[in-house]
Amino acid sequence: MDAEELRARQGILDTLARYNFAGDRGRLDELAACFCEDGVLVVEGDWSARGREEIQSRLASVVSHSRGEQAGRTLRHHLTTHRAEFESQTVARSWTYFLVLTERGPDHAGRYVDRLHRCDGTWLLAHRRVVLEWEGPEGRFRVDGGHLVRAGGGP
Questions:
Q1: pTM of the prediction?
Q2: Residue 104 phi, psi (nearest 5)
Q3: Is 98 in contact with 77 (CB distance < 8 Å)?
Q4: Alpha carbon of 136 to those of 16, 59, 64, 76, 154: distances in Å?
Q5: Residue 144's pLDDT is what?
Q6: What average pLDDT does range 126-140 have in this prediction?
Q7: 3-150 adopts what CATH topology?
Q8: How far apart are CA 37 and CA 24, in angstroms?
Q9: Helix (H) or strand (E) holding 28
Q10: In 3D, which of 21, 26, 59, 25 has the Cα closest to residue 41?
């Protein structure tokens, strides 16, 4: 592994961290900026959005729908095992496990399946597929047929 690959790997990890920091804080413009202009976000089995504006708008509707229940509460996405493979100097694929914690403890978990492009020296998400795999028994959210819904029913 040479210095350029190390810089690329660190750049990818930085993008993944910026995405989750922004999302946990409700800064959807910053989260959308982690995508290429025509990037795609897919929540497997539920919905998808293309382009920064649509991604931000779709996530805003999710946040506004659940804001009353979640106001002032803890939401933290923790990234765990990560793997990246390079197709070229400007295209990579990565797989990352995540665990979401709230004030109640472990809430839900899954994996991100990503394709990233390096644009003007910055690695950005070209395509992200969110795969939900587990829900906590005391969580605020639950996985229902691949859909993430608030515990107690409703989308």
A1: 0.87
A2: -90, -10
A3: yes
A4: 23, 22, 23, 14, 17
A5: 59
A6: 88
A7: Nuclear Transport Factor 2; Chain: A, (3.10.450)
A8: 22
A9: helix 28-32
A10: 59
Q: Cβ distance 98 to 78 under 8 Å?
A: yes
pLDDT of residue 65: 46
Separation between Cα atoms, residue 134 and residue 146, nearest integer Å: 10
Strand locations in the chain (E): 35-43, 47-50, 75-86, 91-102, 105-119, 122-135, 141-144, 147-150
Output the pLDDT for position 151: 55
Nearest-angstrom CA–CA distance, 96 and 49: 20
What letter does residue 38 receive in the DSSP assignment? Answer: E
Residue 67 CB neighbour total at 10 angstroms: 10
Residue 13 has pLDDT above 70, yes or no: yes
Looking at residue 87, the DSSP 8-state letter turns out to be: S
